[in-house]
UniProtKB/TrEMBL annotation:
The keyword Transmembrane applies. Keywords: Membrane, Transmembrane, Transmembrane helix. The chain crosses the membrane at residues 61-85. This is Uncharacterized protein LOC105114503. The gene is LOC105114503. It comes from Populus euphratica (Euphrates poplar).
């Protein structure tokens, strides 16, 4: 284990890294500019240019009107067929997004946030200072790192979007210690290690990742303290004070905690707060009406938040839109699933789920509302990772774009998608987005 050295200005430095405005100029800026002249558009333009050239040349030869009409018809058929083969929106009519476009339901694939994107208000309205350019630059670097991952098939664990998000956040914050709860085969440990090659990790999980090595690929880190297997202790029961002392940590604001353990996130925030930790990432920030534990997004889904609150009225626009979207997106929920007895829409049909839904209890709206007020009272920053790319590019069929923020690489920008190396990845890795969230807890008075 490394000996940790801390400067007195460590907290300020870390906060500065999060909050100081940072503009990155890189060759990606050029790439972006190039890609904004999107190649699919370029192709279409070239094709119409070609067509008009042909037609103007043809006019010189058209003496017989019937022959001329026939030739024109033939050219039109060739042009339409050619467009169909060159345009990406026509290539895969079998995926839900494209099907939507094909049947004239345009907008279903690219209407990000149209059903509202709830978020948690922070006390002072602060936000992260990394920009979409920083995210693009990060993506450009991360794709080739991701390709070297030891666990290629991480079903039930993180896919590409969240792996990128965790790597990016850890790399940006530069913590002196990283703690993860919920390890599985060790993919997220590997991601943290790629972001911070020399930083110690503490990993908590009931099953040690080395157990998985017997069956196939897994990752066990050499600079990680495992509270796993027979040494497992739940995050809420660890004596963090003595653990930090053991690791030489004096400044808790330089520690990053990553939760992927499917526990009630309100419970985890309170435990982290009690221990004095300030930088938290939750992998599965489930949307209202979905998931196996009470999430930050569910907690903050309130009618006073733009994009928050729901109506259980079955003859409402929301009900109609939700019904339609269920046809296209696996995680979309209809009003019947969203609303439990007595029109309880908060949590999952009025339930506060915990521990992979092994334990749950009904909560009243008043209690739910109080929970959101509590979160607001201790929060400096709430930031949801956007999906890496739009569904027409990734072919993801799971999350409903209507409940997500706009992606880093927007639909239609295939040039950029390709340039970043994202087109090299198997499309199954894009199917796990659940609004990973980064929280910065306010400094508490001691
Ligand atoms: C979804 S998996 C984690 C996936 C992993 N982070 C990855 O990206 O591959 C959830 C893990 O949480 C573990 N788990 C269950 N209860 C836990 C608890 N109370 N504390 C920590 N981990 C727990 C499970 O055994 C499982 O390994």
């Amino acid at each position: 284990m490394h000996t940790l050295v801390h400067s007195p200005s460590a907290t300020t430095n870390m906060l500065d890294r999060v909050l100081s405005s940072r503009r990155v100029t890189s060759h990606l800026d050029d790439a972006e500019t190039d890609a904004s002249a999107d190649d699919s558009k370029t192709k279409k333009q070239n094709l119409s240019l070609l067509a008009s050239n042909y037609l103007s040349r043809l006019s010189h030869f058209c003496i017989c009107p019937t022959a001329c009409l026939l030739i024109c018809l033939l050219l039109a058929v060739i042009l339409i067929t050619s467009l169909a083969f060159h345009s990406r929106s026509f290539v895969c009519v079998s995926d839900p997004g494209s099907r939507a476009g094909f049947f004239g339901l345009e907008g279903l694939e690219s209407d990000f946030g149209s059903l509202g994107v709830p978020w948690c208000r922070s006390k002072h309205g602060k936000t992260v200072q990394w920009t979409s350019k920083d995210l693009l630059k990060g993506l450009e670097e991360f794709v080739s790192i991701y390709e070297t991952r030891p666990i290629k098939n991480n079903i039930y664990g993180m896919g590409f979007d969240h792996s990128f998000g965790l790597w990016f956040i850890a790399k940006w914050l530069k913590p002196v210690l990283m703690i993860e709860s919920g390890v599985f085969k060790g993919h997220s440990t590997w991601v943290l290690r790629q972001a911070m090659p020399d930083t110690p990790i503490i990993s908590l999980s009931p099953r040690h990742p080395e157990k998985y090595l017997k069956k196939g690929p897994a990752y066990v880190d050499g600079n990680c303290t495992y509270l796993a297997g027979k040494d497992f202790v739940d995050f809420g029961s660890v004596d963090w004070k003595s653990m930090m002392k053991k690791h030489g940590i004096t400044d808790l604001s330089r520690v990053l905690i990553f939760f992927d353990d499917h526990q009630n996130e309100l419970k985890r925030v309170k435990q982290a707060l009690d221990a004095g930790f300030r930088h938290l990432v939750f992998e599965d920030n489930y949307d209202t009406g979905t998931g196996d534990h009470y999430s930050l997004r569910q907690i903050c889904d309130q009618s006073y938040i733009r994009g928050g609150g729901h109506s259980c009225f079955r003859d409402s626009d929301e009900a109609r839109i939700r019904l339609k979207r269920k046809l296209f997106w696996e995680k979309a929920v209809g009003i019947d699933e969203l609303c439990g007895p007595n029109e309880a829409w908060w949590g999952v049909g009025g339930w506060m789920r915990d521990d992979f839904n092994h334990s749950n209890k009904p909560i009243s709206y008043a209690e739910h509302f109080q929970n959101s007020r509590f979160i607001e009272s201790i929060l400096d920053v709430y930031w949801e990772l956007p999906p890496v790319a739009g569904p027409s590019l990734t072919h993801q069929t799971r999350y409903d774009p209507a409940r997500a923020t706009s992606p880093i690489v927007e639909d239609g920008r295939y040039g950029l998608f390709q340039q970043l190396g994202l087109s090299r990845l198997d499309r199954s890795v894009f199917n796990g987005y659940t609004q990973m969230v980064y929280l910065e807890i306010s400094e508490q008075e001691s």
